[in-house]
Write a structure and sequence with these properties.
425 residues, single chain, 42% helix, six-stranded mixed sheet, alpha/beta
Length: 425
């Protein structure tokens, strides 16, 4: 089964046999989008970010301020410049990038298909913004739960700047729901993609990347990944409560279902009292975040049972601090490996074993590593760890805030084709 959710700028709820119509619709908008000026698009997204944060602050939650910051004209323009060799103007004309012979121009790849996971709708929407700012039209393959995604995209029509009507830009996006068993339409999406962007877990990404595609299709894969944090003793002695509060934010945002959410916190200390005290402070902060800032959504019976099982296991071989229900769980133990993810606000606190961590930190499954320690020491450990794995090393409290690059790549660079010509023809 396939269903059109938004087409030609209008919300729909129409079941269809073939999605070819929406592909044709969005393809017609490529010339219009290509004719828009980059600064005008940046101004539009600046205003859109403020609108989203104000109108959907409750649904977006603590990400609201980040939306305004990331989509600001200054920040998004800077990210675009960095991704496009220092000059956003390459999207509009041939530019001299200091090559002695060549001039450079970046053209949009065309149609970008976004497979967005239901548990990271907010993160997924950033890839749509990046597609539009690089003048690519988009088709969003929506998850089964798509209410917030649809609200955010549809609200673009409410924005108007001096040069761009949101209702016009909205026509450059189509949203469709395609059942995972609808092989015909899944393949049709994939075959018409100039870029495929996949957000999600291992099974979801595998099902997307195995679909037939053009030889010239570019794939951008976001997931599945694992993230963790490291804190040294000196930092805890100076400011353990603030660090605990920030880690609690990282754990609670997206309930650890985002690839950038931490599952293990390593403490560089030989003093068990310091480690145990820090675990208690994380627990206190998780409780406060749940009550005041990010109330946890209802947990399924299956997940609740899994959480209770992991608590029972570590009562025997470690220490468990938890809410009365299954809202949050802090587990400390003598284990030194990366903890297996339970998700749903279950965080492990463990003593840092640098050699053991270096062995485990050799897989590309590692994404975000937040390191809290003195700057020189921090840079040294980050350099050593990220030689083999790990793509982002933000401050604690910012682990799940989207940035560019993400997963080790500048997404906007992957969304364009580089055209060259000679300075002297």
């Amino acid at each position: 089964m396939a269903k059109i959710l938004l087409s030609e700028g209008k919300v729909s709820n129409q079941e269809i046999e073939s999605i070819q119509k929406i592909i044709d619709n969005v393809n017609k908008q490529r010339q219009w989008l290509h004719s828009q000026q980059i600064d005008d698009l940046l101004e539009f997204f600046d205003k859109l970010g403020q609108h989203w944060a104000e109108k959907f602050s409750k649904e977006i939650g603590v990400n609201s301020k980040h939306l305004i910051s990331f989509l600001s004209k200054e920040n998004l323009g800077k990210k675009l410049d960095i991704a496009l060799r220092g000059n956003r103007n390459v999207l509009e004309k041939f530019v001299d990038l200091s090559d002695p012979e060549l001039m450079f121009h970046a053209q949009p790849r065309g149609i970008i298909i976004h497979w967005i996971a239901g548990n990271v709708e907010i993160l997924g929407i950033f890839s749509v913004v990046q597609a539009l700012i690089t003048k690519n039209v988009s088709i969003i393959k929506a998850p089964s739960k798509f209410e917030l995604l649809l609200k955010l995209v549809e609200s673009m029509k409410e924005i108007k700047t001096e040069k761009i009507l949101g209702s016009d830009l909205l026509k450059c996006i189509e949203i469709v729901y395609v059942d995972r068993d609808d092989q015909k339409n899944q393949e049709l999406l994939s075959k018409n993609a100039d870029v495929r962007i996949a957000w999600g877990g291992g099974e979801a990404v595998k099902s997307i990347t195995t679909l037939p595609k053009s030889l010239f299709t570019e794939d951008i894969i976001y997931g599945p990944k694992y993230s963790y944090a490291i804190v040294d003793e000196q930092s805890l002695l100076q400011n353990s409560e603030k660090i605990a509060q920030r880690i609690a934010i990282d754990v609670s945002m997206f309930d650890q279902y985002a690839c950038s959410s931490p599952h293990t916190v390593f403490v560089e200390s030989d003093n068990n009292e310091i480690i145990d005290d820090f675990a208690k402070k994380i627990a206190k902060s998780l409780d406060a975040v749940n009550r005041i800032l990010i109330p946890k959504k209802e947990t399924t019976p299956e997940k609740s049972l899994e959480i209770l099982d992991i608590r029972t296991e570590y009562v025997i071989k470690g220490n468990v601090i938890s809410s009365q229900g299954t809202e949050w769980t802090v587990i400390s133990s003598d284990e030194k490996n990366l903890a297996k993810p339970t998700f749903s606000r279950v965080i492990h606190v463990r003593k840092l074993d640098k050699e053991k961590l270096q062995e485990e930190n050799s897989s590309r499954k590692i994404q975000t590593i937040a390191v809290v320690m003195e700057q020189k020491k921090r840079y040294e450990i980050i350099d050593k760890l990220t030689l083999l794995a790990g793509d982002r090393c933000p401050n604690v409290g910012n682990m799940s805030l989207f940035d560019s690059p993400w997963d080790g790549m500048f997404g906007m660079d992957r969304m364009v084709r580089w055209i060259t010509t000679y300075k002297n023809g």
